[in-house]
Amino acid sequence: MPGGVNSPVRAFKGVGGTPLFFESADGARMVDVDGHEFIDFVGSWGVMLLGHNHPGIVEAVSEALVRGTSFGAPAPGEVDLAERVIELVRGVEVVRMVNSGTEATMSAIRLARAATGRTVLIKFRGGYHGHGDAFLVDAGSGAATLGVPSSPGVPDSLAAQTLVADYNDLDSVAELFHGAEDRVAAVIVEPVAGNMGCVPPVPGFLQGLRDLCDRYGSLLIFDEVMTGFRVSAGCAQEKYGVLPDLTTLGKVIGGGLPVGAYGGRENLMRQIAPDGPVYQAGTLSGNPLAVAAGSAALSYIQAHPEIYAELESLGQGLGDGLLEIGSELGIPLTWNQSGAMGSLFFGPGPVNDWRSVERTETARFAPFFHEMLTREVYLPPSPYEAWFWSTAHDHDAVGKTLEAARDSLKAALDHG
Ligand code: PLP
Predict the structure, then answer these.
(1) DSSP 202
(2) Is 362 a pocket residue for ligand 1 (Cβ < 6 Å)?
(3) Which residues, in sequence order, are CB contacts of 215 under 8 Å at separation 6+?
(4) Where are the beta strands (DSSP E) in 101-144?
(5) Is any atom of ligand 1 closer than 6 Å to the C-beta of 225?
(6) Which residue has a Cα nearest atom 11 of ligand 1?
(7) CA distance 282 to 279
(8) Does the beta carbon of 100 lie inside 6 Å of ligand 1?
(9) Cβ-proximal residues to 168 (8 Å cutoff; 6+ apart), any chain
(10) CA distances from 303 to 40, 291, 297, 308 (A)
């Protein structure tokens, strides 16, 4: 396997050293093959909102398993998940299931281009929307970690169709619109940026995007693969009160199994085959095990709306604690958070776009990461990733994490 892994950031290139191999996980904790137990803030990169091994999900998948692992034909489970998504996400009237976030975003821009008859796409510096060719231009996440924000193999002619603006900077978007007149099919944005570390939208930014898209006849795509069901039950579009034309989903929607989805206004989504001519298909899309896990996750969310306030306040406790330790030790830190995702940046804030992320002292992250690992806290192995916590994380886990952070920051200071 390239780098010994099946997805680049897992290889620890951003922090050095050798990745751990994990054998099992339960609640907020994961156990590696050597038997060490870690408090997990990766959460399978944002998937595990309800923690590992959630009993409702385990039961749903076990029940589905004995009924058959794949039919390649319609089944009630997919309808159940589709209905839950439509109930929860206001911007989604019709939805198509796929197998990953990447598939969801690739399909959404095909639809946007078809529906508008235009080709240009506007994305944001440090934004990551999966590994589709159109998105690997100034991309965040693993691409930024590895220093290859724009990938070889993406044809220049295609990359030229992707324009890059600055997140939280409406003027930079307006400027691109002025230059591209009526050629912009869509603006795609992580409504809370999560792939340059967590960077929430400044007030007015998302609404400003909505207004620009309306003025120029372009579609607004919220890539909610990371934020979906994580920052709020109704996703970022509910939390920040701005409706996109199309929404892409992944991670939490699959309850730990591979599910992605894209959806939006009915008149747009009916252009997808077989209702319309825009082709998109998948052998395993709507897989019965995957949708059973997803439905179990979303049904828990629907039955327990109170979890979001708890997740938010748990994260605030973590952030406040980290900042307090930083000021005790004389280390300027910044904590950004939205719902159940957040990031610690080394350096003074505000951190509200890719340039301010780059200005932070990212080199201080690697020693901190390794010190935390020795104290059995598993953080995302890159300064450009958000931390994720779950309903299984409690005050005890946060307390242990803060203890580890105090000792780790001290140790990292001592080692210069
Ligand atoms: N969009 C966003 C915002 C993401 O964070 C990711 C993955 O991290 C993707 C799309 C791609 O999803 P996947 O890795 O499931 O293909």
Answers:
(1) P
(2) no
(3) 177
(4) 120-124
(5) yes
(6) 130
(7) 11
(8) yes
(9) 199, 201, 202, 205, 352, 353
(10) 25, 18, 10, 12
Helices (H) and strands (E) in the chain, counts: 15, 14
In angstroms, what is the span from residue 129 Cα to ligand 1's centroid? 5
d(CA 388, CA 99): 21
Count Cβ atoms below 10 Å from residue 214 Cβ, excluding itself.
12
> Rounded to whole angstroms, how far apart are CA atoms 360 and 329?
18
Q: Does pTM top 0.85 for this prediction?
A: yes
CA of 169 to the centre of ligand 1 (A): 23
Distance 6 CA to ligand 1 centre (A): 14
Shortest CA distance to 292 belongs to which of 31, 87, 71? 71
- Look at the block and give the residue holding tokens 């699959």: 254
One pLDDT digit (tens) per residue for the chain, 416 residues: 999 999 999 999 989 999 999 999 999 999 999 999 999 999 999 999 999 999 999 999 999 999 999 999 999 999 999 999 999 999 999 999 999 999 999 999 999 999 999 999 999 999 999 999 999 887 766 666 665 557 889 888 888 899 999 999 999 999 999 989 799 999 999 999 999 999 999 999 999 999 999 999 999 999 999 999 999 999 999 999 999 999 999 999 999 999 999 999 999 999 999 999 999 999 999 999 999 999 999 999 999 999 999 999 999 999 999 999 999 999 999 999 999 999 999 999 999 999 999 999 999 999 999 999 999 999 999 999 999 999 999 999 999 999 999 999 999 888 76
43 lines ligand 1 (CB under 6 A): no
E-assigned strands of 227-332?
Answer: 246-249, 260-264
Instruction: Evaluate the CA torsion angle 275, 92, 143, 259 in order and state its sign.
Output: negative
Task: Report how far apart, in Å, the C-alpha atoms of 216 and of each of 124, 173, 181, 185, 209 are.
Answer: 18, 12, 8, 9, 11
The type of residue at 390 is: S
Degrees, nearest 5: CA angle 310-289-287: 115
User: Quick check: 299 and 264 in contact, CB under 8 A?
Assistant: no
As a residue count, the chain comes to 416
Residue with the smallest CA separation from ligand 1 atom 12 is: 101
Ligand 1 atom closest to residue 224's alpha carbon, by position in its atom list:
3
Q: Which mutation among 251, 284, 387 tests ligand 1's pocket best, with the greatest number of atoms within 8 A of CB? A: 251
Q: Residue 61 and residue 259: Cα distance in Å, rounded?
A: 14
H-helix or E-strand spanning residue 336: strand 333-338
